[in-house]
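Cast an eye over this sequence plus tokens and explain the fold to me:
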Amino acid sequence: MNEIVLTGDRPTGKLHIGHYVGSLVTRLKMQEEYSDNLIFIADLQALTDNFDNPQKVRANTIEVALDWLAVGLKPERNIFFIQSLVPELAELTVLYMNLVSLARLQRNPTVKTEMKQKEYGATVPIGFLAYPVSQAADITAFKSTIVPVGEDQLPMIEQTNEIVRRFNNIYNCDILVECRGLLSKTVRLPGTDGNEKMGKSLNNAIYLSDDEQTIKEKIKKMYTDPNHIRVSDPGKVEGNPVFTYLDAFDADKEKLEELKAHYRRGGLGDVMLKNRLNDIMQGTLEPIRERRREYEKDKGEVLNLLLSGSNKAREIAANTLDEVKSAMMLKY
């Protein structure tokens, strides 16, 4: 059986540099290694906590696709599709809900953490609480075997495989396929303000589409070591976002280690480090910005690409749904 790779992004904003090191670089490598790659825009999942702002989700659907194409993801190597244009996913979600208890969903550590962050209590939307079931539908509909994820999403892979095993056991079949999560080897980037989480709402992200001056200003304001007041002061490297970004993007590791040693003993200013980071970031992002500008000239063609991919994805998902309904005696 061929390895089938599935990944996706929620269209709640343009993609930032954290997405790039966390998942997009992995996808670039995988599109060369595997022929069966599906990448989808999870607009239904985005609505679970943006149900009152559908225009934001709709507007960012094209923006996310532009970012994908800009970084170099190839239409000939990937099927790009929109989640809501594959209604078979919603039907599978409903069927799988009978295989998962409320207690199990409430015990999911990722869901618990996100509910706390969003200050959800008893008012949590059912769609949000049950989105791991929707993710299981996304994965199993295409019989995906590899799902690139962040470490915080591993509980979703576990939950998906539980559903797979329970379904196959109850209906005495081997229709659904277990998957494995593939973790990025790159450290998770913090926000430019030092916050562990990066995002638009926190105003602490560098976006792939940011222009040269915007990136320069954001790096200039980056959080460093608050106790490194004078150039002569010893500075802390660990937990310093500038060094975390340099670890991710600076190709000259030997020089970077020298800079770290210099910073620790004192005599190295933050401005010099930020200038180095700016030069590296500009070199990394300029080709991406250039490709994005080209694709932006015809957003209609980008939408056509998503529509065509959604039709292909729907054919695959429909076959799986047909098998699932046959096993459940729902074919009349």
Q: What stands out?
A: Residues 56 and 146 are 30 Å apart (CA to CA). The first helix runs from residue 17 to 33. The beta strands are 5-9, 37-41, 79-82, 146-149, 180-183.
